[in-house]
Amino acid sequence: MDARRSSPGVVCSPILGLRFCFRCCLEGRVCILQAMLEVCDRTLNATASSSRWISERVARCSESSFDGALDLSQSPLTELELTGVLQELVQLGVAHRVRFLNLFMTNVRKIPDVLRRSLPHLERLWLGCAPLVAVPTEALPVELVELDLSYGGVLEQLPDDVFLSLKKLETLYLGGNQLKLLPPSLFDPENGSGASLMHLDVHGNALKTMPPATGCCTALLTLNLGRNQLRTLPSELAMCSDLRSLQVYKNDLQLPLPEAFQTAYLHLGNFNWRGNPAFAHVPAVVERQGLRALLTYFTRPLAASASHRVTDAGRS
C-alpha cells in the first residue's frame, strides 16, 4: 500500500505536491502557507536562473570570439523578455554583430515590432516549436535569408505585406501551423521574396489553394505542400521548372493535374504524391516505368490508361 495513503487523515495534491492534513483543517489551522512560500521561492529561483543564463548569452555577443549566433533556444523566454534582450544588444553596441537568432522552443507568441530595426543584419531566424500567433507586418529584418516559423501549431495568418522588402529570403519553413492562405508578398518577385525563394515548406497547414503567383518563384528548388487540403494546383507552378523536390502527399488533389507539369518536372529527384484519394489506383505498370510515366498519367490519365491497357494486351 502507498505510504502516503496509509497515513490517516492525510491527502496529497499531485499538482502542487502539497500534503493537507484533515486534522489541521478541522482545528482551523490550515498549514499550507509554508509550502506555498516554498513553491514561490522555487519559481523565483528558476526565473532568476533563466535570466542569468540569458544575460550570459547576450554578454558573449561582445566577445571577440563571437561567431554571430545568439542561441536562446529551449528557454522560457517571452516576447517581452526578447524585447529586453534586443534593447540590451543595442545599448551594448553589438546588435549589428548578430547574424543568427535561435528562438527554437521558447515561449515567444509574437515577434517584437522592434526586431527589424534592432537586428538590421540578421540573416537567420529560428522560431520553430514556439507558440507564435502574430508576426507584425514590418517586424522581420530585411536581410533574412532563412526563416523558420514551423510547428507552432497556432499560427493562423500572416499579414499580406509581411514579406515586402525581404528580397534575400531563400528558405522558409511554415509547416505545422494552421495557415489557410499564404501572403501575396511571399510570391512578389519585385518587392517581396518571389525572386529569391528557393526552399518553401508549408506542409501540415489548412491550405485549400495555392495562388497562381507561386509560378513567380522561378528559383524554387524544393516545395513541400503535403498534408493540406489542396484539390488543385495552379498551372503556373510549371514555371518553377528548376524544382528538384515536389511533395504533395496527403491532400485531396483531383485528376488531371495541369498538363504543363508533364514536361516541366522531368528532372524531379523527389516526387511524393501518395495519400491523395484520387491517386489511389495508379496502375503498377505506371509506377514501374518511373517519373515520366507518372507525370503523363497524372496530367492525361485517360490517355495514359488506354495506352497501358493496349501495351498490357500486347504483352499477353
Written overview of the protein:
Mean pLDDT is 87; it is low at 1-22, 24-32 and 39-46. A nine-stranded parallel sheet has the order 3-4-5-6-7-8-9-10-11, with no helix packed on it. A two-stranded antiparallel ribbon has the order 1-2. By secondary structure, the chain is α/β, with parallel strands linked by helices. The protein is built from nine helices and eleven strands. Helix 8 packs across helix 9. The protein has helices at 3-6, 22-26, 33-59, 79-92, 115-118, 261-264, 284-289, 291-299, 301-315; strands at 10-12, 19-21, 69-71, 100-102, 124-126, 146-148, 171-173, 199-201, 222-224, 245-247, 270-272.
List keywords for this structure.
elongated; 9 helices; 316 residues; Leucine-rich repeat, LRR (right-handed beta-alpha superhelix); 10% strand; two-stranded antiparallel ribbon; disordered N terminus
Order of helices and strands: HEEHHEHEHEEEEEEHEHHH
CATH topology of one domain: Leucine-rich repeat, LRR (right-handed beta-alpha superhelix)
Which whole number gives the mean pLDDT? 87
Kindly provide the radius of gyration, computed on alpha-carbon positions and rounded to a whole number of angstroms: 27 Å
Structural category: alpha/beta
In what range is the share of β-strand residues?
A: 5-15%
Residue stretches low in confidence (pLDDT < 50, at least 5 long) are 1-22, 24-32, 39-46
- Strand segment count: 11
Helix content: 25-40%
Number of helices: 9
Strand order of the largest sheet: 3-4-5-6-7-8-9-10-11
Shape: elongated
Major pleated sheet: 9 strands, parallel
Query: Which architecture of one domain would the CATH scheme give at its second level?
Result: Alpha-Beta Horseshoe
Name of the CATH homologous superfamily of one domain: Ribonuclease Inhibitor
